[in-house]
Amino acid sequence: MAQRERLHLRTSRTQRNTDLVKLGTTVGAAYASTAARKLFATAERRVELDRERELRTAEAVAERLGNMKGALMKLGQMASYVDEGLPAPLREALAQLQSNAPPMSAELAAEVIERDLGAPPDRLFVEWDPAPIAAASIGQVHKAVVVDPDTGVERAVAVKVQYPGVGDAVAADLRNADLLGLLLQQGFSGLNPDEMVAEIKERLTEELDYRLEARNQQAFAQFYRGHPFIHVPEVLPSFSSAHVITSELVTGSDWQQMSSWPQEQKDLIGESLFRFVFRSLYRLHAFNGDPHPGNYLFHGDGRVTFLDFGLVKHFSEADMRTFVGMVKAAAYDNDQVQFRRIVEAAGMLKPGCPSPDDEVGEYFSQFYESVRNDRVVTWSSEYASRIVRHTFDRTSPIAQYATVPRAFVFIQRINLGLYALLGELQATGNYRRMAEELWPFVAGPPSTPLALAEQSWLASAPLRANVQW
Description:
Layout: H1 2-7, H2 13-38, H3 43-68, H4 70-82, H5 88-95, H6 106-117, H7 121-124, E1 127-128, E2 134-135, E3 139-147, E4 154-162, H8 166-175, H9 177-187, H10 194-207, H11 210-223, E5 230-231, E6 244-248, H12 255-258, H13 263-284, E7 286-288, E8 296-298, E9 304-306, E10 312-314, H14 317-332, H15 336-346, H16 357-364, E11 377-378, H17 381-391, H18 406-425, E12 428-429, H19 431-438, H20 449-453, H21 455-464
Parallel strand pairs: 5-9
Antiparallel strand pairs: 1-3, 2-3, 3-4, 4-6, 7-10, 8-9, 11-12
Helix pairs in contact: 2-3, 3-4, 3-5, 4-5, 10-18, 13-18, 13-19, 14-15, 15-16, 17-18
């Protein structure tokens, strides 16, 4: 019974706002206490006190968000890997949320499986491990063995089980749009977050439906089947439901383990991440909108397994024409007049901005900096953070006319998240040539060994582009 009480999710708006008030009180008390003690401290001791206060604050934020789960924890995950402006201890504590969260009990996981799939896990599966191998914002993952209904062969699988009540918890978070907007504005003063909040609410609501996630994952798995360095685990539909997803079990190194690998291996990983994001965008008109380190497994020589397809964003033909037109005008043709015409039509820049075309182009061009010139670049964490600060800096005269339409919310998130990961890898390569391979208006020749390795796969990839969502 103690386990069940420990797992109880605070789901009402009042309850979860109370948690946030407690968090704010804890953080405020830490600052007040530190300020009082610094009055009589030496210079060295003041530095120590600030460090201790940052650590106490970091631990409080990570623990509170980790136990709350749901939308607020998801926002904590976003902040942990994107914004280098956060104090280092706080960023490190939030980083724990990328792949770790307090797990639910084995009994609760078994109840979810029995309710959704009609039998307890010890009857449904040949083998079942009650201890989770991963826990995240809305669910946790267990290992199991099943008899594949199509082949009759036993196979190891990963079973993702949604936390009971997490849907109510997320709904409580998302009903409070003002709170979500406030959290965004805390990091980026002056931002009008209405459309961003609306898009985040819709995507996080979709993430609760594991049936939708299973369809998304299987569509990506179908498209990338046979790819030499991009792998998406296949879904087993007969063992999946609204709150359970069963897919092939994949083993590999996680982000932390990979971080000690030689730089040449990290360069290959950076290339694979880049190719996956933009191949998916230009060929499938979709991408996985949750690029954080807990969503990858690494196998060496650039081979990456991509996990968690709960936040997939699909784009219309009109959206794609806008995205392609923007990158072509900004990074390929260097046509500032055309670029401005496109961003105004897309709603990113309100008509009437008095700044000349070249200044408008320069304002938006930071996203294209790494691919504008034919040269070798090394990504840095500072570059990703600079784009974040620049994007949400409302002191620029152009920024007073700039907006973030809904179609661009997750495009920006995938870009910022990808750039942050590449910066952490310090990945090096000629990303302009890689981009030219992927841009549909260029379709350039292979420029790297990984590109050469996928040529035979690419020959049949157009057939897969007709996948039904």
